[in-house]
Amino acid sequence: MYQSKIAGLGKYVPENVITNDDLSKIMDTNDAWIQERTGIKERRHIKKGDGNTTASMGAKAAKIALERANISKDDIDLIVFATLSPDYYFPGCGVQIQEMLEIHTCPALDIRNQCSGFIYGLSVADQFIKTGMYKNVLLIGSENHSGGLDFTTRGRSVSVIFGDGAGAAVLTRSDHNGQGVLSTHLHSEGKHALELSLKGPSTNHWVPEIIAENKAAGDESQLEDIPYYPYMNGQFVFKNAVVRFSEVIMEGLKANGMDVSDVDMLIPHQANLRISQFIQQKFKLRDDQVYNNIQKYGNTTAASIPIALTEAWEDGKVKEGDTIVLAAFGSGFTWASAVIEW
Ligand SMILES: CC(C)(COP(=O)(O)OP(=O)(O)OC[C@H]1O[C@@H](n2cnc3c(N)ncnc32)[C@H](O)[C@@H]1OP(=O)(O)O)[C@@H](O)C(=O)NCCC(=O)NCCS
């Protein structure tokens, strides 16, 4: 049985910074509310005409990861792309990035597990490398949220939280036994699927139907529930997140005969700074043992862990020999953890 390790990391975020004050000019919100509830100060949004899409941002992050891994695109055996905001309904972003990076005809797989997407993808990559079927896997998480959020007061509890960006990792077969991905644990609970969801357009709620509804309503701003904007039961999500984050982190540590004292760095999915702080306090971790950057980028869903991991690595906060724990929770509900010996 082989072991996989992360050989290179990269990130890309659009240049366009949107502060809380910027949002308060277009909806009834304010910097104090957003910072107090979420810790977010600003986020990045794709600007019309800047050429960024979910796939193209992913390609930019992937290029950096490949360079740092010193692995040629010709040696990539599998592309795994995690997103909830693909450029097209079909095909997925995996094949788009294959074309953008001129990667040969290897398989390209799309992962639809929202905020847990990157760890789900990491687990898929790890399994293929472990069995020896593939040696090098390019894993990307990327999101264009700003193109699909409700920036009126009606949508404020969701739209202030999310931002755009991409992160990527190159996974390769590890030469040193014990170094690399030690374990991944994945979970989901479909009974809460609609608590954080975007219902349309979909085959259940098809475009002509939506157009007809809007026409009937006359003025879209009068509609309370618009299926093509995300719905989030915020407090319910929060309560489930803190429980599942804790469980899945402990599950990963226990599987490796470790406990919280073995963790050098926890990189949680950047859902909400208050969730990360809750976990930090619960596990009695110091500030330098938990990496957060939601303050700058908001919640970038499948991109948040690879962006945070890349930044932590760039800052020298992830070093050889460190035990790194990744953990995520999100829509589905889905949740997951990975324990990595760097
Ligand atoms: C979204 C979240 C920040 C909202 O915080 P909350 O404390 O639950 O706030 P509520 O939704 O109860 O709203 C409280 C009040 O603030 C208002 N409000 C909502 N969004 C607001 C905004 N952006 N600006 C100002 N006021 C806002 C509400 O209308 C409500 O007003 P009311 O009391 O007059 O009715 C919080 O529930 C949360 O972080 N949930 C988890 C989200 C998450 O992690 N999602 C991603 C999972 S991967």
Automatic annotation (TrEMBL):
Q: In which pathway does it act?
A: Lipid metabolism; fatty acid biosynthesis
Write the gene name. Answer: fabH
| Assembly, per entry | Homodimer.
Keyword vocabulary terms for this entry: Acyltransferase, Cytoplasm, Fatty acid biosynthesis, Fatty acid metabolism, Lipid biosynthesis, Lipid metabolism, Multifunctional enzyme, Transferase
Superkingdom, taxonomy of origin: Bacteria
Where is each Beta-ketoacyl-[acyl-carrier-protein] synthase III N-terminal domain found?
109-190
Recorded GO MF terms: 3-oxoacyl-[acyl-carrier-protein] synthase activity; beta-ketoacyl-acyl-carrier-protein synthase III activity
Record domain Beta-ketoacyl-[acyl-carrier-protein] synthase III C-terminal: where: 253-342
Residues covered by region (ACP-binding): 270-274
**A GO term from the CC aspect:** cytoplasm
The record's section on HAMAP family has:
FabH
Fill in the domain comment.
The last Arg residue of the ACP-binding site is essential for the weak association between ACP/AcpP and FabH.
Q: What is the first-listed, main subcellular location in coarse terms?
A: cytoplasm
| One Pfam match | ACP_syn_III_C
Q: What is this protein called?
A: Beta-ketoacyl-[acyl-carrier-protein] synthase III
Q: Where in the cell is it found?
A: Cytoplasm
Q: Which family does it belong to?
A: Belongs to the thiolase-like superfamily. FabH family.
Q: Which residues form the active site?
A: C115, H269, N299
The GO biological-process annotations, alphabetized, read as:
fatty acid biosynthetic process
Keyword Lipid metabolism in annotation: yes
Q: Write down the InterPro entries for this protein, in alphabetical order.
A: ACP_syn_III_C, ACP_syn_III_N, FabH, Thiolase-like
Reaction(s) catalysed by this chain's protein: malonyl-[ACP] + acetyl-CoA + H(+) = 3-oxobutanoyl-[ACP] + CO2 + CoA
| EC number from the UniProt entry | 2.3.1.180
User: What is the scientific name of the source organism?
Assistant: Zunongwangia atlantica 22II14-10F7
Q: Main role?
A: Catalyzes the condensation reaction of fatty acid synthesis by the addition to an acyl acceptor of two carbons from malonyl-ACP. Catalyzes the first condensation reaction which initiates fatty acid synthesis and may therefore play a role in governing the total rate of fatty acid production. Possesses both acetoacetyl-ACP synthase and acetyl transacylase activities. Its substrate specificity determines the biosynthesis of branched-chain and/or straight-chain of fatty acids.
